[in-house]
């Protein structure tokens, strides 16, 4: 039963993408996609989800959607504003540095979400990760601080709050 | 504003102007007329023609109809050429095998997690291209290559030792390739075998019924045309391509330690 829930979650993830990619809801496409998605879900479920899923995961999923919109609208806007200023100014006004940014989430997914969020906003980019010491090494185009805790405050605080809520 | 900026701007404008001049006055060669050549007319008439099924491929996509029906035998030999190239690669690397615990354990955990999330999506998108090869641009080879991208990502992010651990050995990959090719052969002689067993006439690479043969592959599946052999060929080709190309990628990714025994051992005292 627990295995089945995991399988269904992965299946829906793959099948939803199939329908979006194919952009067709004919019986032909849906039937063949159903078969292919079921096959791929059976193969990939052990890699994607190891723990048991419960009702609270629906709440996490809602947080993920909320985070997606917040990230795309607010966080991306803030980061772009700063970089656009640098790009358009006549004098190159940058303070590049690689700073340590600690993180406290425990799961691989949470960590990937934070790292992806940092890299995807312009101006910051994760170049390496130290799993033992729970550190990201982040290249920052306008480093206002090189203190790890302060850098975390400025770069990844929001990302981390949501990552902890979504993936734990 | 410097002189070089002005020069760049002016030359860009000149380029756009010259290109539009060339296109308007036919400097790039004659522009196609509205009259179609007889060959194009016949392709357009017979690619999908429910009123003259004996001449038609019953596929809405002209390119796939040409590739797998009108010149199916030719495409079969093209597929064989790729297979022979893979055979050559295997012969070159004969005896090589993936060794466990050589050096790398793949890339960082971030790349691994992202790759394992994306890989199934790439695979299903490739499958979609293969399924719809006779309805929209795409097809077996394109779908198979698309899926090979996912396999390449896995091979690099998780290292080729990961494939070995998951029992996807070089021999298995070759077997997948051979199953795909065998499926193409089976599909192409299916109607012929049926005709021999049940009486009557049929051709190899026959798709829809022909003038002196009433045998036919299914032309519809649920609510869309299936175009008979075209769909099955696309499916088999994508399986053959993902097996063959992944095998090629893994062979080319082999590390020095694995190759020393085969290509480094030729020195004589």
Automatic annotation (TrEMBL), chain B:
Membrane topology field: Multi-pass membrane protein
Matches recorded under PANTHER family: NA(+)/H(+) ANTIPORTER SUBUNIT B (PTHR33932), NA(+)_H(+) ANTIPORTER SUBUNIT B (PTHR33932:SF4)
Any single Pfam family the record assigns to this protein: MnhB
Domain Na+/H+ antiporter MnhB subunit-related protein: 110-246
InterPro entries from the UniProt entry: CPA3_antiporter_subunitB, MnhB
GO-annotated cellular components: plasma membrane
Chief location bin: membrane
Origin superkingdom: Archaea
Localization of this protein: Cell membrane
Segments traversing the membrane: 7-28, 76-96, 117-135, 141-163, 175-205, 225-254
Key words, A-Z: Cell membrane, Membrane, Transmembrane, Transmembrane helix
The protein's name: Sodium:proton antiporter
């Amino acid at each position: 039963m627990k295995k089945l829930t995991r399988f269904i979650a992965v299946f829906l993830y793959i099948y939803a993408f199939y329908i979006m990619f194919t952009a067709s809801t004919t019986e032909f496409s849906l039937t063949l996609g159903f078969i292919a998605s079921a096959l791929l879900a059976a193969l990939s479920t052990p890699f994607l989800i190891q723990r048991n899923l419960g009702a609270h995961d629906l709440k996490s999923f809602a947080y993920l959607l909320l985070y997606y919109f917040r990230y795309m609208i607010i966080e991306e806007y803030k980061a772009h504003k700063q970089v656009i200023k640098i790009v358009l100014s006549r004098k190159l006004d940058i303070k590049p540095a690689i700073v340590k940014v600690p993180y406290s989430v425990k799961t691989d997914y949470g960590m990937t979400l934070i790292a992806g969020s940092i890299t995807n906003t312009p101006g910051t980019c994760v170049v390496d990760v130290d799993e033992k010491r729970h550190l990201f090494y982040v290249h920052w185009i306008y480093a206002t601080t090189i203190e790890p805790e302060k850098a975390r405050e400025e770069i990844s605080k929001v990302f981390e709050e949501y990552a902890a809520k979504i993936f734990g | 504003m410097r002189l070089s900026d002005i020069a760049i701007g002016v030359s860009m404008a000149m380029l756009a102007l010259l290109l539009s001049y060339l296109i308007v006055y036919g400097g790039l060669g004659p522009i196609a007329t509205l009259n179609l050549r007889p060959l194009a007319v016949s392709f357009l008439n017979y690619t999908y023609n429910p009123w003259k099924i004996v001449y038609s491929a019953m596929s809405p996509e002209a390119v796939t109809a040409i590739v797998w029906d009108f010149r199916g035998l030719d495409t079969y030999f093209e597929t064989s050429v790729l297979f022979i190239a893979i055979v050559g690669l295997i012969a070159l690397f004969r005896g090589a095998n993936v060794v466990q615990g050589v050096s790398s354990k793949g890339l960082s955990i971030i790349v691994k997690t992202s790759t394992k999330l994306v890989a199934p999506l790439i695979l299903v998108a490739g499958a979609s291209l293969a399924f719809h090869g006779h309805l929209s641009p795409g097809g077996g080879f394109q779908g198979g290559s698309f899926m090979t991208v996912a396999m390449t990502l896995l091979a690099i992010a998780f290292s080729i030792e990961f494939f070995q651990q998951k029992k996807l050995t070089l021999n298995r990959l070759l077997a997948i390739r051979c199953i795909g090719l065998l499926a193409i052969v089976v599909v192409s002689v299916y109607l012929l075998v049926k005709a021999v067993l049940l009486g009557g006439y049929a051709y190899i690479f026959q798709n829809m019924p022909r003038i002196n043969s009433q045998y036919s592959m299914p032309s519809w599946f649920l609510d869309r045309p299936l175009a008979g052999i075209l769909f099955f060929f696309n499916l088999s080709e994508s399986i053959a391509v993902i097996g063959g190309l992944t095998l090629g990628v893994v062979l080319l990714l082999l590390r020095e330690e694995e190759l020393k025994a085969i290509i480094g051992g030729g020195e004589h005292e």
